[in-house]
Amino acid sequence: MPPPAIVEEVEEEEWLMTYADAITLLMAFFVMLVSFSKIDIPLYEEVMAGIKDEIGKGKTISTTTVLAQELESAVFEMQAEQVVDVQKSDKGLSIEMSSGAFFIPGTAKLRPEAAPILDSLSVTFAKEKFKYFFIVVNGHTDDDPINTVQFPSNWELSAGRAASVTNYFISIGLHNYRQTVVGHAATRPKFPNRTVKGDPIPENMARNRRVVVDLQVMNRKEREEFSDILLEERLAEEERKRLAEEQRARDEAQEQDDESEKNESETDSNQ
After folding, report:
1. Average pLDDT for residues 20-34, to the nearest whole number?
2. Residue 54 has pLDDT above 50, yes or no
3. Mean pLDDT, residues 36-62 taken together
4. Above 60 in pLDDT, residue 57?
5. Domain layout of the chain by residue ranges
6. How confident is the model over 242-249, as a mean pLDDT?
7. Which site among 11, 64, 182, 194 is 20 to 30 Å from 2 CA-CA?
8. Residue 261 contacts by C-beta under 8 Å, 6 or more apart in sequence?
9. Which fold has domain 63-218?
10. φ, ψ for residue 11 (rounded to 5)?
11. Is 80 exposed, middle or buried (0-12, 13-18, 19+ CB in 10 A)?
C-alpha cells in the first residue's frame, strides 16, 4: 500500500494585518507627539497628578494647583481681590496687578501700600516646594504717550515698572536666576484703549495699565542648572564663613601675643 501523499499546509498570514495596523498606529501616535508645538505644563501636571491619584488611590494635586490655592488665599487675606487677580495660564500661573493701585501715576515708583501685598506674594514664592517656578514680570501701559526725561516712551515706563517689582522681589530674598523683566508698552491691551473714532476710553485704559507676574514651571534642565547654582552659592558662602572664622582666630591670637608682649614690657620697665 503506497504511503499517503504529503499535503503542504497553507501558512496563515492574517496576523501580519494586525501587526501592521499596530505599527501604523504607533507611528501615528509618535508623529502626533513630535508635532506638538506647545506643551501645556499645568495640564500635564494635572494629568500626572490624576494618574498618581488613580494608581495610589490617594489625594494628589499638582504643584501648580497648590501654588494657585495659596496665592488666592494670600490675596483674600490681604483683601486685595479688587487689584490682584490670580489665574491659570498655559505655562503656569498669571497674577495681574493694577498699576493704579501699585504705582504713583507717571512713574515706576511703588506706592507704600503695595509693599504688604508684594511681601505676601513673595512669602509664597519663596517656599521650598515652589522654588522651581520662574517669575516673569511683564509691564503694560495704555496707548497714551509719555515723554519725560526718565521715561521717553511707554516702553521705558512699562519696563521700569516691571523692574521695580522684580527688584523688590530680589531685595527680600528671591533668587536672581528666577527673575525676568519684560516691557510691553501698549502692545498687549486687554481692552480697546479708544473708540473707532479715536476717542479715549478711560476705564479701559486704566485696566490696560497693569503688571502681570507669570509663574512658569522650570523644565528638567533648568531645575538642574538652578540646583547647581544654589549648591555653588552655598559652598561659596561656607568657604567665606570658614575664611572669616580663620581670620578671626588669627586676629584673636595676634591680640593675645600683643597683650603678652605689652605685659612683659611693663614688667621689665618696673624692674
Report:
1. 70
2. no
3. 53
4. no
5. 63-218, 219-255
6. 92
7. 11
8. none
9. 60s Ribosomal Protein L30; Chain: A; (3.30.1330)
10. -75, 120
11. buried
